[in-house]
Amino acid sequence: xxxxxxxxxxxxxxxxxxxxxxxxxxxxxxxxxxxxxxxxxxxxxxxxxxxxxxxxxxxxxxxxxxxxxxxxxxxxxxxxxxxxxxxxxxxxxxxxxxxxxxxxxxxxxxxxxxxxxxxxxxxxxxxxxxxxxxxxxxxxxxxxxxxxxxxxxxxxxxxxxxxxxxxxxxxxxxxxxxxxxxxxxxxxxxxxxxxxxxxxxxxxxxxxxxxxxxxxxxxxxxxxxxxxxxxxxxxxxxxxxxxxxxxxxxxxxxxxxxxxxxxxxxxxxxxxxxxxxxxxxxxxxxxxxxxxxxxxxxxxxxxxxxxxxxxxxxxxxxxxxxxxxxxxxxxxxxxxxxxxxx
Length: 342
Fold this sequence. Notes:
This protein has a 5-stranded mixed sheet. The protein is 52% helix and 6% strand. Helix 1 packs across helix 4 and helix 14 packs across helix 15 (321-332). The protein contains 16 helices and 5 strands.
């Protein structure tokens, strides 16, 4: 399961990640004004929960950290203090999950709420559950900043799973798609597992036996309420960003009668080629937006109506009910029957 990243410049995130990084740098004697240089943020703003920031601003601060810090442990230290309680509704939704399998699934589903710098995916195998980071090997932004993000992201994963599980739950192995750096010893120190470099991709591996275990703060009612809140927050982000937001809103205005890409492009006064390119720039596609709209409408119909799944499938433009049921399982990890009962 995977989720696309949100827009790089969209200011929709509380500054908790920036604050944590600035704090780590301050402990090294680096002034907050230097850490925030070029980000458009002042020191007092990163302590203000009402201030919204973008991934771009966070990337600028990470770039400053790479330039100013002489401590290679900086990204690891930052990731280790970014506990789930700093992530608002997203964090509490993960902590209240009913199983670690749910935690893995929802971590990906709602990742867009977490000031994401890397795409994340996870896959369950017979004996392993594996997190992968598909864009970790791309050259943008700089190689140094990308490695900084990977080191911080991996440490965050270990920190978050410990928050959810209530005790240490290290990976069985961490793999990196680049040569071992001079500070390679820090990887196993902070991640608590053997680390492999020059691998074909970046991934974190866990024993699949943990997936059925219950988080120490698991609570069915709390989980349901907070996950519903995350759904609304994800929806708000979708409908407020760029051309993809306009397309999303247009689709939601005519549920059951989705306009074609040609019709949408004409309504937006552009060619289909331009629309496709603009959506690609926003790291999405017309098909992905249609998929998102179908998912939003399907969950709403199942929650608020008594329509049969066959009728819902027809309303959403599926030629076969089985195709709809298969898509719904992919979207939510549940069958339509289980979702409606919940």
